[in-house]
Specification:
The protein has about 110 residues and is an alpha+beta fold. It contains 2 helices and 6 strands, in the order αβαβββββ. It has helices at about 1-20, 40-50, and strands at about 25-30, 60-65, 65-70, 75-80, 95-100, 100-110. Helix 1 packs across helix 2. The chain binds zinc ion (ZN). The site of zinc ion has 8 residues, from loops.
């Protein structure tokens, strides 16, 4: 039920940023390691958006791939199948640099054509 509180705070942010205007679209970035289920997030959003400025808004989710930087050879690479070893030198001494984020990329207002 993590997604519910996220949706709640997203709606708060939307209301603040929109300046009281109706919102037509909200674009969200979600890292694949953020622990957030995009499907649940969308569902929660559709339930909670009723009676808010987002009531007609669509949610678009952009997934962010997991990325690591190797502390041995300094190479950045995408993580596949949750294997956090460096594909270049096989070291396990890596730092995750993307894939845990969760934020609103932008919102579109209804009459901002
Ligand atoms: Zn490496």
């Amino acid at each position: 039920m993590h997604e519910l509180s996220i949706v709640q705070s997203m709606l708060d942010i939307c209301e603040k940023r929109s300046g009281g205007n109706q919102i037509s679209k909200i674009v969200v970035k979600i890292g694949k390691m953020s622990g957030i289920e995009p499907h649940f997030l969308k569902e929660s959003f559709d339930i909670f958006k009723e009676d808010t400025l987002c009531s007609d808004a669509l949610m678009q989710i952009n997934l962010v791939d997991i990325k690591i930087r190797c502390n041995e050879c300094d190479k950045e690479s995408l993580v596949e199948n949750y294997d956090f070893h460096c594909p270049n030198c096989k070291s396990s001494n890596t730092t995750q640099i993307a894939g845990q984020e969760m934020y609103i990329e932008y919102i579109e207002l209804k009459d901002s054509q």
